[in-house]
Every structure is written in structure tokens, then in C-alpha cells.
Amino acid sequence: MAKETVLISGGAGYIGSHTAVELIAAGYDAVIIDNLSNSEAEAVEGVRRITGVDVPFERVDTCDEAALRRVFEKYDFGSVIHFAAYKAVGESVAEPLKYYRNNLASFMNVCALMKEFGRPNILFSSSATVYGEPDTLPVTEQTPRKPATSPYGNTKQMAEDILHDCCAAYEGLHGIALRYFNPIGAHPSALIGELPRGVPQNLVPYITQTAAGLRECLSIFGDDYDTPDGTCLRDYIDVVDLAKAHVAAVDRMTQRRMKEAYEIFNIGTGTPVSVLELVKGFERANGLTLNYKIVGRRAGDVKAVWADTQRANKELGWKAERPLEETLRSAWAWEKHVRGMN
Q1: Which pTM was predicted?
Q2: How many helices and strands (H and E) does the chain possess?
Q3: For residue 120, cis peptide bond before it (omega within 30 degrees of 0)
Q4: Residues 14, 99, 152, 206: which is the catalytic one?
Q5: Could you confirm whether 170 is annotated as catalytic?
Q6: Quick check: helix, strand or coil at residue 328?
């Protein structure tokens, strides 16, 4: 039987590159497309080195319908994983039109071409931001979505709605939205990992860059929240575990095990970890002392959010497995690799 082929939009990005590796390990063929606006072609080389497969790569912007059409004409894939999107919350507040135009037009192009070409399966990269500040914890897939606190979060909610409506309207189209919590870490090989441009927006890259001497000091935003140590609580999931969740979701679609045309799954560990715990855990895991300081709260930060993962555990047969300490060691190994510190 021929291998199933999966198109990965935004496949040179952080989560996309790790997902490509896990898909290939699970016996799929992968095709990566990316416009490299917020990623590096080296990530594709990393995927090729880890897998030993000359993975096809096309430099394509998913907002360019004609260029995307050529990919559909060239490759025979039945499933697409759509990662391609802008993702900085603060930037989305400052430049909402940039986010609405890019994140929604690109996804609608994918959906339209999937319908036109009769390709059945769309896996959408969503986010726990759709829950906002939840009333009860942990959040389940039935937890109501709150009004988005940023245009970025709004594009995730709107794209989920677009996928839901397309799956309801178009016979044969199936969609799954994976709502991620906080992906961290890197591949054990240290050949791929998170590589933000400019000042990192996420905590772990800021930690590793501080440890590497690129940043003078790590700021922890607020220690007066109603949490055990006063810092925000999050659900930090290892990026390799997250990538494996995508494989499980693609398996579910290609093996026709979906119970509805559109399904949603929370992808996290189910264990809350505070910002301060994560910082101290990084120090312990790597035998380092970080320069950090407590500063005032940051606008838009949610006090606490973590996942109830029972649905993904049961329906996808998937569970987060990598210990946090190992994840934090992999993040530091990747940072050292990037900076030539090995």
C-alpha cells in the first residue's frame, strides 16, 4: 500500500518541523511549504538530517492562491496540517489587519482548494487562547470559548468556525482542531527547535537566551496572582509530544475513525506549572543560575489555564510523556547548538 502523503503548511516553523519528523517516523510522506517569513530554511535541513529523507520543500505563501494551487496540482496528498499563521499576540493588537488578512485568507485558501481537489482531511493548529480566562479549571473541550483578548486569538476562533462550517457544508471534508497549550523544548537531536526572530515572545526561548548571555535579565511578570507562588500557571507541553498528537490526529482522519466531521481536542499535559517553577526547573535541569527579576503584571496575561486531556488520551490514544526536566534540558541543548556553544 502506498504511503499517505501529508502537506504541512508552515512546516519550517517550530511545531511544523517537529511534526514533519514524527509523521515520517510514523510512516507518512511529508511535503513542507513555508514562506519563511518567520522561519528558516535550515529547519527543513534539520528535518532531512534527522529523518534521512529528502523531504520536498516549496517556498510558498498560503495567502497566494495561485502558488498554493500549483502545490495541489504537483503533489497528491489527502491530508493537510495548517500551521501557517502569524502568532505574536502583542503585534496582533498593534496590527490587526495584518493578522486578519494573513491568518484567515491563508486558511480559507487551504479549505477552498481541499474542497475543489477533493482532498478530505484538514488538521488545524489552534490554541488554548480561545478559552480566554476560564471560569473553571482545568478546561475541557466543552469549556465555553471567551471573547478573544487579541486579534491573534480571534483569528484562531474564527478559523475554527470556518473549519466547522466547511465540514458541515461540504460532503467528504473532515476537520480536526488541536488546541495547544504552551509548547516548549526541542528535538533530542538538537537539530531543530524554537528559533524566534528578535526578542522572544515566549518564556522558554527568553530563558535560554538569558542563560546564553544574549539577554541580560529575564523578567517575570507579576508575583501577586492568586496562585501557590504568585506567578501565572500554565500547561507546558513538550514539542515532540505535541508533534506526536498531530500524528495521532492524522491517523484518526486517514483511518476514518472520526465520530463527527469536525472534532476538537485539547493538547497539553494536564499539569499546571508556574512561571517561577519553570525557571527554577530549568536551573536545576541544566545546573545553571539565571538572572531574573520580578516586575509588574503584563496586560492580557491570564492568571491560570491548563488542560483536561482525557478526551485526547481516550479518543486519540495519545498522552504527553516526556518529563519536564528532559524537555528543559533539550531547550538548552538546542540554544547551545544554535549559538555554537557546544
Answers
A1: 0.97
A2: 11, 13
A3: no
A4: 152
A5: no
A6: helix
Alpha-carbon distance 342 to 337, whole Å?
A: 6
Cα–Cα separations (whole angstroms), residue 119 to 42, 101, 216: 29, 24, 49
CA angle 103, 261, 164 (to 5 degrees): 35
Q: 9 pairs with which residues across the strands?
A: 33, 82
Q: In the numeric block, which cell numbers belong to residue 138?
A: 482545568
Backbone angles phi, psi at 223, to 5 degrees: -130, 25
Span 220-269, pLDDT tens digits: 999 999 999 999 999 999 999 999 999 999 999 999 999 999 999 999 99
Amino acid present at 89: V
pLDDT at 2: 61
The answer to whether the CB of 8 falls within 8 A of the CB of 30 is yes
Query: How many CB atoms lie under 10 A from the CB of residue 20?
Result: 32
Contact residues for 165 (Cβ-Cβ < 8 A; gap 6+): none
Residue 247: other Cβ atoms inside 10 A: 22
Report in angstroms the alpha-carbon separations of 47 from 5, 193, 269.
16, 11, 25
C-alpha cell at 71: 502545490
The b-or-e profile of 58-81 (16+ CB within 10 A means b, else e) is bebbbbeeebbbebbeeeebbbbb
CB-based contacts of 142: which residues, under 8 Å, 6+ apart? none
User: What's the CA gap between 235 and 238, in Å, rounded?
Assistant: 10
Who contacts 64 (Cβ-Cβ below 8 Å, separation ≥6)? none
